# Entry
Amino acid sequence: MSTESPEKKSRFRGLARRVAAVAAVFASASAFTLPASAAPAFSDGKFNFVMTGVGSDTTYFAMQDMDDLFNESPGCAMTLPPILPPFTCVTPQPANIVETENYDHEVATEMYPQGSSAGLRMLCVENDGLPGTGVYAYARSSSAPASAPSECKNDPNDKLRYVGWAKDAVTIPRWTGGASDGVTNLTLDQLKQIFLGTPPAGSPPGTIGTCNHNWNEFGGGNAAIRVNGIQTSSGTYSTWQGFLGGDPNTCVAATGGQVLFENNCTPINNLPAVDRQRSIWALSFGKYTTGEANCSPTGTALIGVNGVAPSPTTIQNGTYQFNRTLFNAYRRGGPAWIQGYVGEAGWICKPNALHSKPVGDPNPGQENANVDRNWGVAIDQVITSNGFVKVNPTGNKCVTFDVN
# Structure
C-alpha cells in the first residue's frame, strides 16, 4: 500500500489552501529522542488540528511551499470509512511504513501576510477573549528576536521561542539608467546619511545632517536621491531600523519618496523615468533574487555594503553585514504537533539524516522503499528556491532563541 499516492497529495494540498483557522494552544518542547525506527515523540496516531501561520510577507510564499511539502509527505496508513474514527492510524501498521515525516498527516497553512510584528501580536492575543480573536499556531517573523509584544506579557504562560529556519539579507537596490549607475558600493555611514539624514562620521560636534543628498556625493551622476521607506509593521522595516540605528523612513517625505509595502518594487517601477532612476530602497535578498519583488534585473542593481556584495555565500558566512535569520515563533506550552512541524527538532529543522530517502539515494537519510524522494533534501530545496540560505550547512537546520 503506497503512502504517497497522487490522489492523497492532491486532497491534502487542497485542504491546506482552504483551511483558515487553528483550534489549538501550544505544548512544551519535545525532541527527537526516539530511535530512528520509531514514530516521532509528538505523534499520537491521529490527525490533530490544522496549524495556521501568521505574520511575515517575506516568508509567506516560502512557508506556503513548505506547507505543501509537509502536507503531502508520507506517514501512517489511516482508517477509511466506514471504519471510524476517520483519520486515525491503523494498528498494526504495514511493513516499511514511513515514520520519519508527517506521521499523523497533520495539515499546515498560512494566513495572508500582514507583517512580522502583526503576526506576533496575533499569536499573543489568541486567548484574550475579545470578539473576533483568532487562534494561531505560530508567527512568521523576518525580524530578530527581541522583547515580546506587550500582548504576550499579559500572561505568564506566553513564552515565545523563535526558531530560525533560513537566512536572508536586507539589500539595497537602485534603479539603473540614471545618475546612480556609477554607485556600486556604499558604506554604513553613507547609508545612514541617505536614509537617516545624519551628518558624516567625524563631523564637528553640533553638525546638523540633511536628508537632501545627491548621487554625485557617492560616486554617481548629478541627481537628487529619492529615498523610499517600508511599512512599519514589517520585519524588514524593523530589521533595517536595527541595522541603521534609526528610523529608515526618516528621509522619505523630505526627498519625495514613498512608504511602500515591503518587497514590492512595482510602485517605484511605475514612476516617471527621472524619479525611478534616482530612487533607492531596501528589501529582502530572497525576494529580489527570485523575482517575487518585481524588481527587473535589467532595471535595477544591488549596491554592495562596505565592499561586500550580497550573495548566498556572503550571507551565510556573515561577511555581508546586513544578513538576517528568518523565524517561526511559537508559544511554549501546548499540543506538541505544532512543535513537531516548526519546532527546533521538528520536521523543518531536523537533520537530513533523520528524514527518509529512496533506496539507493547517496545523500544522507534513512532508506525506505515507500518514499519517492529524499525529504530532507526537498526541504533544503524549498529554502534555496525561495532565494534564501540554509542556517547551518550540515546537521540540524535551525537555531533557536527564547524571549520573555
Notes: The chain is about 25% helix and 15% strand. Residues 6-18 form the longest helix (13 residues). The first strand starts at residue 51 and ends at 55.
